[in-house]
Design brief:
The complex is a heterodimer of chains A (about 300) and B (about 120). By secondary structure, chain A is of the alpha/beta class. Helices cover about 40% and strands about 20% of the residues of chain A. Chain B is about 45% helix and about 25% strand. Chain B has a 5-stranded mixed sheet with strand order 3-2-1-4-5. Chain B is globular. Classes of the chains: A alpha/beta (about 300), B alpha+beta (about 120).
Chain lengths: ~300, ~120
């Protein structure tokens, strides 16, 4: 049996373990949250190194993309470097492929993403594939990277402007401690009430809310009217939260395993094991063919 | 080490670039803040005021600051001239910014949007 462990800077309340079979291979997949404790994540990775088949990094992105440029977050790179034998992935490689495909799938197979529909992506630099695909299919997308991360009430309306702002900001931002860029630990269990009040209208004005679940949740106001939410990692509690806020449909990009969808970092770690290749050698076509083999389709759930 | 006059010149350059950046003015429309800039190695204090997207600055201390930026004169002038970004000196402790984390982040963004390449 192959072992994959996701070490997350997120809350340990979401810890989970499943045994599953993928493409004829037995996997034990577990998720270990460190409640925002960066040092603990670092030592956990050092302990797991050489004892598991692949490690996923959760609650932190290592690579951000805008246009053709990739930016690496220093804190994330340090975590990756903590393992010398076992490969460590953050999900960004798969995200770029899988989430793009999710958007195409929804357009082709459902009526959930009509051309011109208003989409709010709470953050796009962490899932540029999705941002690019939504734009390509003619959705009216608002990128909330500045609004929600920095509190600057400036909706970015095109991928070109997103890439321009990213080019100016990200080379420096990636040097900042990760907790200044993204909710970690206990922050993942709470909402930023100030921003919910101030920027909740962006959710109300949209038909589709897309992006990282922790960000989607952190700024989501109540009183939604049936919006579609496209995200990755959700638990049963998350479904209740989304329903309570008035969301209508949930689409998760990764498959459900025993009641929850694991993050893309976990799925990327699994795929790395199945492909038997070094991360740098994996091409989008490799992911696509494995997605096909695994018959991985987005989960569409009426709330 | 820079002089008070050089820091003033760097703030003039910063101000000019800000004024020419219409996008930044739109971004800051809701952010009314007073920022005190203090050099810790020469006698030099300036006050930046952001109000409804417009930026102004004066020599000396004016009003109660929401943010206080403290560093040596060389770093301050280099930073406001755009020769260095605030990130490194902030992270290594040679640049101190007193204020809320959200405001610090936003000030950093403004500087990067003005000078970032």
């Amino acid at each position: 049996m192959k072992k994959v462990v996701s070490v997350s800077l997120g809350s340990s309340k979401r810890d989970h373990k499943v045994i599953t079979n993928m493409a004829g291979q037995e996997f034990e997949i577990s998720r270990l949250g460190t409640d925002g404790d960066y040092g603990r994540a670092l030592s956990m990775i050092e302990e797991l190194d050489g004892n598991v088949d692949a490690i996923g990094l959760g609650g932190i992105d290592v690579y951000l993309y805008a246009g053709d440029t990739r930016y690496a977050i220093n804190d994330g790179l340090k975590l990756m470097d903590a393992a010398k034998k076992t490969p460590v992935v953050d999900g960004s490689g798969l995200k770029n492929t899988l989430e793009r495909e999710t958007v195409y799938y929804l357009r082709k197979n459902t009526g959930l993403l009509p051309s011109g529909c208003k989409v709010l992506m709470v953050s796009a630099v962490d899932r540029f594939g999705m941002a690019d695909a939504l734009t390509e299919l003619g959705c009216d997308v608002t990128f909330g990277d500045l609004i929600f991360t920095t509190g600057i009430p400036y909706p970015i309306k095109s991928v070109a402007e997103l890439a321009d702002i990213a080019r100016r900001i990200l080379p420096e931002m990636v040097k900042m401690p990760f907790h200044m860029l993204y909710p970690t630990g206990a922050k993942q269990d709470s909402q930023d009430e100030g921003k919910v009040q101030k920027f909740g209208h962006y959710y109300h004005e949209s038909q589709v809310i897309a992006g990282d679940y922790h960000l989607v949740k952190r700024y989501m106001p109540g009183g939604l009217n049936g919006q579609l939410v496209i995200t990755n990692t959700t638990t049963r509690e998350d479904l209740l939260f989304l329903k309570d806020r008035g969301a209508g449909v949930l689409v998760t990009t990764t498959p459900e395993l025993e009641g929850r969808s694991f993050g893309t970092n976990v799925m990327e770690a699994v795929m790395l094991v199945l492909l038997g290749k070094a991360w740098n050698d994996i091409k989008p076509e490799d992911y696509l063919s494995l997605i096909d083999r695994l018959n991985m389709k987005p989960r569409v759930l009426e709330l | 080490m820079a002089t008070h006059g050089e820091i003033t010149e760097s703030l003039q350059a910063f101000h000019k670039s800000y004024q020419e950046n219409e996008r930044l003015k739109v971004m800051n429309k809701d952010w009314n803040r007073t920022v005190l800039v203090i050099a810790n190695d020469v006698e030099s204090t300036h006050t930046l005021v952001l109000k409804e997207g417009e930026l102004s600055f004066q020599e000396g201390r004016q009003g109660d600051p929401d943010l206080t930026v403290i560093s040596d004169s060389g770093i301050l002038s280099d930073m406001f001239f755009g020769d260095i970004t605030p990130t490194e000196p902030y992270l290594n402790g040679t640049l101190k910014i007193i204020g809320s984390e959200d405001d610090i982040m936003r000030l950093d963004f403004i500087t990067l949007l003005i000078w970032g390449e």
